[in-house]
């Protein structure tokens, strides 16, 4: 049973006055307090968990965000920031005593600067919206999560999202140049900008991937890239997932860095093909999509190298895109893998762990064993090039015990990732989903050090509490002394 911070009874008792105060700050339709209207916000994309918020606030200006946060800070009210609600880790799960601060109205492109190859946007702009704004001039924004048509750039910042082309072009953190952030006390700060480097601590990197625990992003400056001269994709089928995994390792070991390299196993292949009709081979156990981009001569040479490595690993089918339309079709199946799996199972948990590439065969074999142990099917879709796994655990929430079994299965997969030298998350974040698994990767000293960063920004723990850290602590508790045999350390030092 998922445990969240106990609701503050005093805040719940003051709900009517809190709503009225917030309406003074965000007038019109910017405050939603009717139960029926708040129902749309009770969960994010991790739909196994639901909770109605205290109230929903949809600000339209930075000043409104600042005033809402300052009000909540002064009155001890918790705040959960939310973008488009596509988080797969429960990062935007509301709390019963918290204001749900929804940033979807911050949806404007503010500045396009081709000379500096930078775009300034509000956090509610979708990931794909940035590319749409610059594609007529031959530019694009590189990180491309599967949910890019819907996910917001502010949410991408919160979770440090990746995508199929992150292998070569990096995650969100590698493509963000600057942020405007409002802190819980209402202060507005600017981090970075269109310049490449800033002096002092790298707070820009700290904020990227902070899961809404440190501040609320109100403006984002991102790097845009020029579209490559040529991009071609190869569809490669293998008789086993292990041989496909070995081919991935061999491609990287050969010094080839594809623009994207994705892998799907048999259940995911069939689900995607039934949904998109991308003409995927159905007689293989694993499918790689390997895309090379750059000058045409280089792409041709590298494709030949990839084909040779694939054949050496027992590939049974190889098809290279002959047109831009065919390349897009190859990717359409992969991009639709998550919704397509939803057609073959009433429910599924989409996990997210990252491992060293060389461990792919071992981990894939381990997942098959875990599938038998837990009695649930799993479909694998993942960013093979950087070892970012997305196993989809299939279950039926209407069958007693299956959700718990799915959660246990997912936890065992993540433990396996850590065991082989990997990490708990690559791009979905910790949220509530992996919160209790943090001690598998970090000891208490590690977690306390991370908590001290949280305390420096939010000493009252009002921003997105109950997420990331396995237990809710007060900042004062981090300074607690260790008492041994009834004696304090250094008893001769005066204490006040």
Automatic annotation (TrEMBL):
InterPro entries: FAD-bd_oxidored_4_C (IPR004113), FAD-bd_PCMH (IPR016166), FAD-bd_PCMH-like_sf (IPR036318), FAD-bd_PCMH_sub2 (IPR016169), FAD-linked_Oxase-like_C (IPR016164), FAD-linked_OxidoTrans_Type4 (IPR051914), Oxid_FAD_bind_N (IPR006094), Vanillyl_alc_oxidase_C-sub2 (IPR016171). The keyword Nucleotide-binding does not apply. Its cofactor is FAD. Residues 49-227 form the FAD-binding PCMH-type domain. One of its GO terms (molecular function) is oxidoreductase activity. It comes from the Bacteria. Keywords: FAD, Flavoprotein, Oxidoreductase. SUPFAM superfamilies: FAD-binding/transporter-associated domain-like, FAD-linked oxidases, C-terminal domain. This is FAD-binding protein. It comes from Georhizobium profundi. The lineage of its organism: Bacteria, Pseudomonadati, Pseudomonadota, Alphaproteobacteria, Hyphomicrobiales.
């Amino acid at each position: 049973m998922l445990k969240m911070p106990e609701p503050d009874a005093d805040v719940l008792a003051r709900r009517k006055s809190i709503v009225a105060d917030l309406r003074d700050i965000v007038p019109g339709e910017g405050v939603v307090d009717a139960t029926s209207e708040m129902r749309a916000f009770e969960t994010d994309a991790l739909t196994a968990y639901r909770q109605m918020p205290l109230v929903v606030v949809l600000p339209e200006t930075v000043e409104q965000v600042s005033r809402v946060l300052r009000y909540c800070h002064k009155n001890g009210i918790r705040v959960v920031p939310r973008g488009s609600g596509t988080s797969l880790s429960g990062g935007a799960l509301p709390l019963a005593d918290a204001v749900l601060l929804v940033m979807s109205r911050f949806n404007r492109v503010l500045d396009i600067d081709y000379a500096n190859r930078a775009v300034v946007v509000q956090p509610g702009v979708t990931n794909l919206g940035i590319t749409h704004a610059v594609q007529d001039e031959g530019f694009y924004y590189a990180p491309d999560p599967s949910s890019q048509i819907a996910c917001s750039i502010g949410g991408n910042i919160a979770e440090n999202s990746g995508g199929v082309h992150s292998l070569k072009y990096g995650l969100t953190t590698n493509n963000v140049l600057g942020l405007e952030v409002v802190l819980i006390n209402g202060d507005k700060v600017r981090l970075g900008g269109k310049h490449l480097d800033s002096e002092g601590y790298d707070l820009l990197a700290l904020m990227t991937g902070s899961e809404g625990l440190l501040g609320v992003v109100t403006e984002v400056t991102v790097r845009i890239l020029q579209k490559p001269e040529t991009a071609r994709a190869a569809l490669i089928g293998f008789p086993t997932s292990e041989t496909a995994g070995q081919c991935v390792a061999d491609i990287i070991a050969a010094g080839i860095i594809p623009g994207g390299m994705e892998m799907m196993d048999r259940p995911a292949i069939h689900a995607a093909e039934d949904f998109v009709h991308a003409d995927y081979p159905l007689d293989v156990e694993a499918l790689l999509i390997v895309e090379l981009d750059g000058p045409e001569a280089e792409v041709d040479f590298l494709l030949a190298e990839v084909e040779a490595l694939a054949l050496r690993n027992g590939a049974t089918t190889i098809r290279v895109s002959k047109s831009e339309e065919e390349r897009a079709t190859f990717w359409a199946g992969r991009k639709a893998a998550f919704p397509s799996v939803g057609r073959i199972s009433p429910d599924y948990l989409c996990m997210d762990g990252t491992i060293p590439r060389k461990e792919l065969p071992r981990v894939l074999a381990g997942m098959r064993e875990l599938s038998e142990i837990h009695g649930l099917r799993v479909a694998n879709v993942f960013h093979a090039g950087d070892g970012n796994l997305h196993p989809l655990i299939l279950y039926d929430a209407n069958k007693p015990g299956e959700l718990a079994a799915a959660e246990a299965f997912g936890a065992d997969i993540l433990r396996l990732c850590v065991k082989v030298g990997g990490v708990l998350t690559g791009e979905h974040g910790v949220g509530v989903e992996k919160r209790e698994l943090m001690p598998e990767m970090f000891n208490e000293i590690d977690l306390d050090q991370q908590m001290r960063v949280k305390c420096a920004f939010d000493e009252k723990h009002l921003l997105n509490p109950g997420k990331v850290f396995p237990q809710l602590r007060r900042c004062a508790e981090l300074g607690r002394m260790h008492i041994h045999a009834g004696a304090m350390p250094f008893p001769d030092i005066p204490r006040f």
